[in-house]
Amino acid sequence: MIRRTILNLGAVLCLGAMLTALSAQAETVPGTKTARRAIAKPVIPPTTAGPATTTVTTLSQALSAAYRFSPDLRAARHQLDVVNESRPQALSQWLPTVTIGGVVSQTATRTPGLPLANTTGYGPTATAVLPLTHGGGEYAKLHAADHLILAQRALLLATEQVILGQAAQAYMDVALYSALVKYRSDSLSALRQVVQSINRQMKIGDRTATDLSLAQARTADAEALLEQARGSLATANAAYRQAIGEDPGRLSMPAPLTMIPPDLQATTRLAEDSSPNVVAARFQLLAARDQAEVQLAQLLPSLSLQFSDQGLFERTPRYPIAYNGLNAVATAELVLTVPLYQGGAEYAAVRVARKTALERKEQLESARNQAIGGATQAWRQREATEATRLDFAKSVSANERLVAQDQIQLDAGQLTTLEVLISLQDLVNAQINQMTAEHDRRLADFAVLNSVGGLTARTLELPVNYYDPEGDYARTKWRIFGLSVDQ
User: For the chain, how many structural domains are there in total?
Assistant: First the structure.
């Protein structure tokens, strides 16, 4: 529909051939009524929409390029990988620690009635500590790690929505301003030819200086509007390169989205449950409560099993006889530690953790309110843009009928060419308003989808290799050895 509108507009505005032919007729039969009627009657030739060989970049292709290109999105994925490491860190509370070392000693022994004995010893040592319980804090720490990972996954989706939303905005801005530049350029070309035609007609007395001034004023306005549109297009092109990582080609206004919730109630319900910020806040609250349990466990008894083995090679030159040999000592201990008082810091840590959980609870309520408010605004904006789009479509139809009626009156000699151009300019403005309304309507669809957490590559079914958050998590969650990381 909108592309047909663009073609019709181009046909209306291309008056160059008509003006040349009419001016020639006027110069051939000067001063006659027939000549004056001929000058006033425009002939509308067909036009083309642009080079047929230019490849059209679809919105899906642009969003896919942004999904692959965005360094911000890759950084957010690495951030999730960092948070995934909190799980093996939590697992360390269950696993033994093993150390090895060595001992070198020099011992002097004085015994009454015997000479001083010097004993030299050296040998390896090994120690292993197996924690059995830290007051139950190891369970809470593992749960906190899992909840933080799920919260970070939701934040990754929020980043993905921002990236794709910016790409969609950039795409449709370029599509809009490219069309506006075409509109303004065609309008300016037609007005310049009108000025030339009036100059020729003034020589034969069929036009006045007032007609020329009016045409020149409209031409100056058209030049300013064209420069304004070009500036907006240059800004939109820069934003497109920043968001998508490549220069825009020939773009087309996309079709409306089809995965929008059916009504406002469904939209707000989905936003309250599925908005990435709400999901992240929910898991952050659970992690904060788990962290309070971790701190509380510091006040409870801990139990561990400790093993040690020491082999000591000793050499005594005389005491009272020379001795060279190996002394081996192996011990196994069950150690119970009951904290009584640690300066009060442990109590403060528990209070801090509990207060943090209260803060996270309020942040969850705030996230829900923002999600509901954002979804409501997006839905109302969508309704408003839809009504505006329909109204401007009616305006375009009315202006097209007016132009057709002006043509009839022009044939009857009741209107001048300038009067017809005024109605044509009104049609141009109506079509520009309709194009802008179509642009806003498409963006409103994306705003609604973003508010419910659906502006993702999977939901849009983009032709890309989707990032799998389970991939690094599956490789990391039981990883207790190794230093390498995936690039």
Answer: 2
